Amino acid sequence: MKRRWITFLLFFAMIPAVAVGGALVFRERHYAWVSLCVAILTCLPILYDFERRETGSADLMVLSVLTSLSVAGRFLFAWLPGFKPVTAITVITALWLGAEPGFIVGSMTALLSNFYFGQGPWTPFQMFSWGLIGGLAGLLARPLKKHKVLLCLYGIFAGIFYSLIMDLWSTFWMGEGFSLSRYLTLVAAALPTTIEYAVSNVIFLLALTGPIGDKLDRIRVKYGLFRESESDN
Fold first, then answer.
1. Which residues, 6+ apart, have CB-to-CB distance to 51 below 8 Å?
2. To 10 degrees, the CA torsion angle through 125, 129, 134, 140?
3. Residue range 103-124, pLDDT digits in tens
4. Domain locations in the chain as residue ranges
5. What percentage of residues in the chain have a pLDDT greater than 70?
6. Residue 12 carries which DSSP code?
7. List of residues 6+ apart from 174 with CB closer than 8 A
8. What's the predicted TM-score (pTM) here?
C-alpha cells in the first residue's frame, strides 16, 4: 500500500510539477534536464521492483517491446500529425499490465520518438500527458476491458486531455506565466487537431485492443508477468 501511494505521488504530483516548473523556470533552456528528470521519476517504481526482484527481466523486455512498437507506430504515421497509435498502445498496455507499465510506455514513447521528431521544452509535457493517459487507463482497467463503449469514450477523453496539456505548454511558452485568455484561444485554435486525436484514438483502440490484448494476456499468464498488476486488474 505504501508503494502505491509513492507511485501515485510520483505520477500525479511530482512529474507534473517538474514539467510545469521546468517550463516556467527554464522555458526553452535546459529542457533536456527536465526531460531526464521526468524519465527518471517515471521509471523509479519499476526500477525499485527490479531491485527487489518483483519485476524480472522478462517484464522489462515486454515493456521495451511495447515501447518500441509505440515509437514505430508514431514513425509510421508521421505524415498524419494528429493520427497516431501511441495512445492506443499505451492504453492497451495499461489495461493488461497495469497503471505503472502504461505510464512508462506512454512517457518513454514521447522521449524516445522525439529523438526523431525533435526534442524540446514540449517533451516533458508529452511524456506526462501520454504517461498519465496510460496510468489512468490502468486504474480503470476493469470497466474499460469489459465495455467497448467505455473504451471508446476513454479514447475520446485521451485525445482531448492530450491536446489540453499541450496547449498548456504552448501558453507557458508564448508568454510569462499562465494566461487564461491565451490558453482558451489556443484550445479553440487546436480544436480540429483535438478532434483528429480523439477520432484516431477510437479507431486504433478498436483495431488493436483485440490482437495486442490477447497476446499480452497469454504471455502474462504463461510467464507470470507483472503479477501485482494482474491481481489488480
1. none
2. 150
3. 889 989 998 999 888 887 788 8
4. 2-232
5. 81
6. I
7. 182, 186
8. 0.82
